[in-house]
Design goal:
Number of helices: 6
Order of helices and strands: HEEEHEEEEEEHEHHEH
Shape: globular
Number of strands: 11
Helix content: 10-25%
Strand content: 15-25%
Radius of gyration: 17 Å
Structural class: alpha/beta
Distance between the termini: 10 Å
Bound molecules: zinc ion
Largest sheet: 6 strands, mixed
């Protein structure tokens, strides 16, 4: 399936691309999976103004508002979003050198598609947000030809990959290379997460196994 089809297969979204929000187009076959975030906004209105700020060099392939509606902040879903920053080196993710240093890291902006719920660290994802997110990830799985059995390792949280590094943490060299740079999408309390990845993966699995689910309708043969 041609990569360009994915934007048409996914449920519709608003598009917000009015600044430098993206890297190159990455073929779906070169993605390891989907990385989940919350954007740390205090309200959906706040999230939107933040996305519009030209100085804000952060973007997501899709963001999910509290009511479940979607926004794309890259020209297409196939462009690399600026969502992950410096992450762990792992198989399936290109290794890069941090500008001006010998520090090497996993370039998760291209390794993963970046999806975010608009929420802050003390919030809880809403049901419509989780639902939209699960549907879209299931569509990505189908388009990429990924197995439902891969749900656990292809759906990851930013906190499980983002590492301390010389650029973001110049005064803490002892932490470079270690996890802990980001807390999203879990938040402060792992027992009460903003986004429960287990619940999200279960939702994605349900859509992938249930051929009466919405993600199976209107699919080109
Ligand atoms: Zn994040």
């Amino acid at each position: 399936m041609a990569d360009t089809v994915l934007d048409q297969l996914l449920p519709r979204c608003d598009v917000l691309v009015d600044r430098d929000t993206h890297g190159p187009i990455v073929p779906l076959s070169a993605r390891r999976g989907v990385m989940v975030h919350f954007d740390d906004s205090s309200s959906d209105r706040g999230a939107l103004s933040w996305f519009r700020d030209p100085a804000f060099r952060l973007s997501y392939n899709r963001a999910y508002r509290d009511d479940g509606t979607r926004i794309r902040i890259t020209p297409s879903i196939h462009h690399a979003a600026y969502h992950a920053g410096v992450c762990l080196i792992e198989r399936g993710v290109p290794t890069q050198a941090l500008n001006g240093t010998n520090f090497r890291y996993g370039g998760a902006n291209t390794g993963y598609i970046g999806f975010a719920v608009t929420a802050a660290a003390h919030d809880r994802v809403t049901e419509p947000q989780l639902e939209s997110l699960a549907i879209d990830i299931a569509v990505v799985f189908r388009a990429a030809g990924w197995s439902p059995e891969d749900v656990d390792y292809r759906i990851v949280g930013h906190d499980s990959r983002a590492i301390f590094n010389p650029r973001d943490n110049p005064t803490e060299p002892s932490l470079w290379g270690q996890l802990g740079r980001k807390i999203d999408p879990t938040g402060f309390d792992p027992d009460n997460p903003v986004v429960d990845l287990g619940q999200l993966r279960e939702g994605v699995r349900t859509y992938l196994y249930d051929t009466t689910a919405p993600v199976w309708h209107g699919w080109p043969s």
